[in-house]
């Protein structure tokens, strides 16, 4: 089964209007919808487009910590997806989606970096809030991990079944956010 985890942005979407009003619309458009952040490390190895996926359901908390994740179940080079439920309860683009969103605790982020994963994905606007958002994204990049924001459809993945994540991005040296498409492939038979 193939699942598109990409938040689709229509030409009329309010986020596009916001981006077009920014001082640098081209830069802002890179941070609309599902995208990965590239503030410091532009080189993403081509083989990173395919990773083993790990789904972590953290809908029960506002800040996911070490107790919420089985780190031993996370292989190196994985794409770890955090289901916070944010995009399931608030439409992408509305102010409630961005306000006080769930986040990952700093010690959890450090533990994930130590696992030498490739991506952290989240169904919300970031893995930390406000001023810490970009700071943590940069920190992760320096450790070879990119953050993919605004995923959707994580509720369609079957818990406990292995899956593979395919991430497609297009480099743009002028942007700090690269729009991307994220597809999960999961065998739900047997």
Keywords:
single chain; 190 residues; alpha/beta; two-stranded parallel ribbon; 6 helices; 10 strands; 22% helix; globular
Architecture overview:
There is one protein chain. The chain is an alpha/beta fold and 190 residues long. It has helices at 14-20, 25-29, 86-89, 95-98, 106-114, 131-142; strands spanning 2-4, 35-37, 50-57, 63-64, 79-83, 103-104, 119-122, 146-149, 163-169, 177-186. The protein has 6 helices and 10 strands, in the order βααββββααβαβαβββ. The longest helix is centred in the C-terminal third of the chain and has 12 residues, at 131-142. The strands form 2 sheets. The protein has a 7-stranded mixed β-barrel with strand order 2-8-7-5-3-9-10. A two-stranded parallel sheet has the order 4-6. The two termini are 13 Å apart. The chain is globular, with a radius of gyration of 15 Å. The model has no long low-confidence stretch (mean pLDDT 94).
List the helices and strands and how they pair.
Layout lengths: L1 E3 L9 H7 L4 H5 L5 E3 L12 E8 L5 E2 L14 E5 L2 H4 L5 H4 L4 E2 L1 H9 L4 E4 L8 H12 L3 E4 L13 E7 L7 E10 L4
Parallel strand pairs: 3-5, 4-6, 5-7, 7-8
Antiparallel strand pairs: 1-10, 2-8, 2-10, 3-9, 9-10
Q: What level of helicity do the residues show?
A: 10-25%
Structural class of the secondary elements? alpha/beta
Q: What percentage of the residues does DSSP assign to strands (E)?
A: 25-35%
What summary fits the major beta sheet?
7 strands, mixed, barrel
Residue runs with pLDDT of under 50 for 5 or more positions: none
* Radius of gyration, CA atoms, in whole angstroms: 15 Å
Succession of helices and strands: EHHEEEEHHEHEHEEE
Reading side by side through the largest sheet, how are the strands ordered? Answer: 2-8-7-5-3-9-10
What spatial form do the alpha-carbon principal axes imply?
A: globular
Number of strands: 10
Distance between the termini: 13 Å
How many DSSP helices? 6
**pLDDT averaged residue by residue:** 94
């Amino acid at each position: 089964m193939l699942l598109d985890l990409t938040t689709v942005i229509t030409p009329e979407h309010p986020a596009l209007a916001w981006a077009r009003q920014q001082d640098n619309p081209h830069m802002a458009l890179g941070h609309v919808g599902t995208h990965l952040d590239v503030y410091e490390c532009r080189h993403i190895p081509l083989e990173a487009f395919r990773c083993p996926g790990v789904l972590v359901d953290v809908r029960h908390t506002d800040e996911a910590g070490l107790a919420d994740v089985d780190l031993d179940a996370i292989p190196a080079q994985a794409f770890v997806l955090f289901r916070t439920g944010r995009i399931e309860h608030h439409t992408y683009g509305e102010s409630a989606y961005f306000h006080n969103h769930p986040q990952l605790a700093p010690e959890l982020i450090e533990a994930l970096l130590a696992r030498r994963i490739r991506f952290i994905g989240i169904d919300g606007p970031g893995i930390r809030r406000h001023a810490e958002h970009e700071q943590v994204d940069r920190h992760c990049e320096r450790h070879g991990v990119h953050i993919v924001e605004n995923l959707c459809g994580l509720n369609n993945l079957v818990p406990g079944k292995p899956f593979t994540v395919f991430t497609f991005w297009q480099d743009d040296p002028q942007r700090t956010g690269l729009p991307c498409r994220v597809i999960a492939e999961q065998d739900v038979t047997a």
